[in-house]
Design brief:
The complex is a heterodimer of chains A (about 300) and B (about 270). Chain A has about 300 residues and is mainly alpha-helical. Chain A is built from 13 helices and two strands; from the N terminus they run ααααααββααααααα. In chain A, a hairpin with a 2-residue loop joins strand 1 and strand 2. In chain A, helix 5 packs across helix 7. Chain A is flat, with a radius of gyration of 24 Å. The model of chain A has no long low-confidence stretch (mean pLDDT about 90). Chain B has eleven helices and no strands. Chain B is globular. In chain B, about 50% of the residues are buried. Classes of the chains: A mainly alpha (about 300), B mainly alpha (about 270).
Chain lengths: ~300, ~270
C-alpha cells in the first residue's frame, strides 16, 4: 500500500510538471502582458522609447472626449447588434429548414459553413468588390430594373436615424452595412451548426407529444423547441459577440476607418494609435477598454458553463 | 411534393446562392483579363479563361505563400502536441488547483489580442525574434494552447476512467499510460485540433501584421491585403490573389470538413 501511494504521489508530481510550462506561458503571455498593458495605459509613453512615468487615468480621460473614440463605441454597438441579429436569425432559419428531413442536407450544410474556413481578409476583399458603389450589388439591382438612388456603401458618410450625442452623430452608419453583410456571410454557418445540434438534441418524444395534442409544426417549434434552445442562443450571443467586439481584419480589408470614422472600430483605432502613431499609452488605454467590453461578455459565460459541468 | 416543402427547398436554394455568390464572383473575376475585369462588366462572363490574373498574383504572392507554410506547419504540430498532453492531464489526473487553472487558461482564448500586443512586441524585440516567422510561430503556439487544451480535454474526458485505472493498477506510470493507452486512440483528436489550428494560423492577420512588418517575411494573408490595398486596382489580380490565399483552408474544409465542424463547436464550450 505504501508503495502504491508513493507511486500515485509521484505521478501527481509528473502531472503538474507536464502542464506547468503551459500554465507559466499563458500566465506570462496572457495575464502578465495584460497587466503590463494596463500599466502602459496609466503612463505617458508616447513615442518610440518607453516612458513609464505614471500619469493616472489621464489617457482614459482624454480618450473619452475624442470624437473618433465616441464614433468607435457607436460603431461597435451598432455593428454588434445588427450582426448578432442577422447571423442568429439567418442561422436559426437555416437550421430549422434543414431539420425538415431535407434531401441533400449535407450539401446545404457544407455550403452554409464553408465561409468559416475563409479568412476575414479574403471575405473582406470579395465583399468590398461586391459593394463597390459603381459595380457589384448596385449594378446588379440596376440590371434587374431598379433605377432609384443607390448608397455609396463604404464611401457613404450618411448615418441612418441619426441624432446628436456627445461629440458625434449617433445612429446607423451606412458604411457599416456592407461589413454587417460580410460578417453575417462568414459566421451565420456557425450559428446554423449550433442551432442544428441543439434542435437535434430535442427528444423526438417531446415533439411527438405536442403533435398528438394537436399542435402544428410551427407551434411545435414555438412551444417546444425554441424554449429549449435558450442556452444555445446564449452561446451564440457570447461567441459571436466577442468576435464582433474584437473585429479588425474585416474592416481593414473592407473600409478601413470609413468616411468620418463611420466604420472605424476600437481594434483598428488601437492598432493605428499604437503602431502607426506611436502613442503607446493611449493605444494601451483603448486596448484595456476593449478587453473590458469582451470580459463583461465572456467571464459570466465561462463561469456558468464550467459550473454546469458535472463535478469531476 | 407539398407546396410548403417546395417553399423550403426554394428558400434553401436562395440561401445557398447567397453563400456561393462571393466565391462565384471571386472565381469569375480571377479568370478575366485586365480589360474584362471592369467595374461596369462585373457580372458579364469572360470571353475565355485567362490565366494572366492568376499568374500576376502568384508571382507577387508566392514568397509569402511559402512563409505561411513555414509558419503553419510547426505552429500546428507543436500546439497539437502540447494540447494533447495538457488535455490528458486535465481530464484524467486531477491535481490541486486544476479547477482554477482551467478557466484561467480558457479565458486566454477569448481576449482581444490588442490587450497583449504592446508587451508582445517589446518581448519579441528583446529576444531578437521580432519580424521573423520564427517569432510568429512562437506567438501562435502560446495563444493556441487554450483551445488545443480544451479540445483534447473534452476528447479524453469521454474515455472511460477504468482505462487509466486498470493500467495504473498494473503499475504503469502517467507517461506510459499516455503513450500506450491514450496516444494510440488520439488520431481524431489530433485531426480536430490540427485542422482548427491550421485554419486559425493560416487566416491570422492581426499577429502577422504586427509582428512581421517587413513585407518579405509576411505571411500570405498580409500580402494579399497589401496587394488589394495598393493604389493600382487590377480587379482580376486582386480576386486571384484572394483566391490563392483562401485555397489551402478551403481544400482542408472540403476534404476534412467534419473534423473542422467539431473544432468549431468545441470553441463554444459545447
Amino acid at each position: 500500500v505504501a508503495w502504491f501511494l508513493a507511486r500515485v504521489r509521484s505521478d501527481r508530481t509528473v502531472a503538474v510538471l507536464l502542464v506547468a510550462p503551459s500554465i507559466v506561458a499563458v500566465g506570462i503571455f496572457v495575464y502578465g502582458f495584460i497587466g503590463w498593458t494596463g500599466y502602459v495605459s496609466l503612463s505617458r509613453w508616447s513615442g518610440l522609447l518607453p516612458d513609464y512615468h505614471f500619469v493616472g487615468a489621464d489617457n482614459y480621460e482624454r480618450l473619452k472626449d475624442r470624437p473618433r473614440f465616441q464614433a468607435d463605441i457607436r460603431n461597435t454597438i451598432v455593428f454588434t447588434g445588427l450582426f448578432l441579429l442577422s447571423a442568429s436569425v439567418l442561422g436559426f432559419l437555416a437550421a430549422a429548414m434543414l431539420d425538415q428531413k431535407i434531401k441533400a442536407e449535407a450539401f446545404f450544410r457544407g455550403v452554409f459553413l464553408f465561409p468559416m474556413a475563409v479568412s476575414f481578409i479574403v471575405t473582406g476583399i470579395a465583399w468590398s468588390w461586391l459593394f463597390n458603389p459603381s459595380s457589384g450589388v448596385n449594378l446588379l439591382s440596376q440590371k434587374l430594373g431598379y433605377d432609384g438612388p443607390v448608397p455609396a456603401w463604404s464611401t457613404d458618410a450618411n448615418i441612418l436615424l441619426g441624432f446628436d450625442l456627445g461629440r458625434i452623430e449617433a445612429g446607423i452608419p451606412v458604411a457599416l452595412l456592407p461589413v454587417v453583410v460580410a460578417a453575417t456571410w462568414q459566421l451565420a454557418g456557425f450559428t446554423m451548426a449550433m442551432y442544428l445540434a441543439g434542435i437535434r438534441g430535442v427528444p423526438e418524444e417531446l415533439r411527438e407529444a405536442a403533435r398528438v395534442d394537436g399542435a402544428n409544426e410551427w407551434q411545435v417549434y414555438r412551444r417546444v423547441v425554441l424554449p429549449l434552445l435558450r442556452p444555445i442562443t446564449l452561446g451564440v450571443v457570447v461567441i459571436l459577440g466577442h468576435i464582433s467586439l474584437k473585429i479588425f481584419d474585416l474592416t481593414v480589408a473592407m473600409t478601413g476607418s470609413g468616411p468620418n470614422f463611420t466604420s472605424d472600430m476600437p481594434a483598428f483605432y488601437m492598432f493605428e494609435t499604437t503602431f502607426r502613431g506611436n502613442h503607446f499609452a493611449e493605444g494601451a488605454a483603448i486596448a484595456m477598454v476593449l478587453l473590458f467590453l469582451v470580459a463583461t461578455l465572456v467571464i459570466p459565460y465561462l463561469y456558468f458553463s464550467l459550473r454546469r459541468e458535472p463535478a469531476r | 411534393m407539398r407546396p410548403s416543402r417546395v417553399l423550403i427547398y426554394l428558400a434553401l436554394t436562395l440561401l445557398a446562392a447567397f453563400f456561393l455568390l462571393p466565391i462565384y464572383v471571386l472565381v469569375l473575376t480571377s479568370v478575366k483579363t485586365f480589360a474584362e475585369a471592369d467595374l461596369s462588366r462585373m457580372w458579364d462572363l469572360p470571353n475565355g479563361i485567362s490565366t494572366s490574373g492568376l499568374d500576376t498574383a502568384w508571382t507577387a504572392l508566392s514568397p509569402n505563400f511559402l512563409n505561411s507554410i513555414y509558419l503553419v506547419i510547426p505552429a500546428t504540430v507543436i500546439t497539437a502536441a502540447i494540447g494533447s498532453i495538457n488535455g490528458y492531464v486535465l481530464a484524467k489526473w486531477r491535481f490541486r488547483g486544476a479547477n482554477i487553472v482551467f478557466p484561467l487558461l480558457l479565458f486566454g482564448m477569448f481576449i482581444p489580442y490588442q490587450s497583449i500586443l504592446i508587451p508582445l512586441v517589446r518581448f519579441l524585440q528583446q529576444v531578437n525574434l521580432y519580424g521573423s516567422i520564427k517569432g510568429l510561430v512562437i506567438v501562435h503556439i502560446v495563444y493556441g494552447i487554450p483551445i488545443a487544451t480544451l479540445i483534447f480535454r473534452n476528447y479524453y474526458a469521454a474515455f472511460p476512467d477504468d482505462l487509466a485505472e486498470a493500467a495504473k493498477v498494473e503499475g504503469a506510470s502517467i507517461l506510459v499510460i499516455y503513450r500506450r493507452v491514450f496516444l494510440p486512440l488520439s488520431l481524431p483528436g489530433f485531426a480536430v485540433v490540427s485542422i482548427w489550428e491550421f485554419t486559425q494560423v493560416w487566416n491570422d492577420f492581426l499577429f502577422a501584421v504586427t509582428v512581421t512588418p517587413n513585407p518579405s517575411s509576411q505571411p500570405v494573408t498580409v500580402a494579399v491585403q497589401n496587394l488589394s490595398g495598393s493604389q493600382i486596382v487590377e480587379w482580376n489580380v486582386q480576386m486571384a490573389g484572394a483566391l490563392i490565399a483562401a485555397l489551402p483552408t478551403l481544400l482542408v474544409y472540403i476534404f476534412l470538413g467534419r473534423f473542422f465542424l467539431r473544432g468549431l463547436l468545441a470553441g463554444a464550450l459545447k
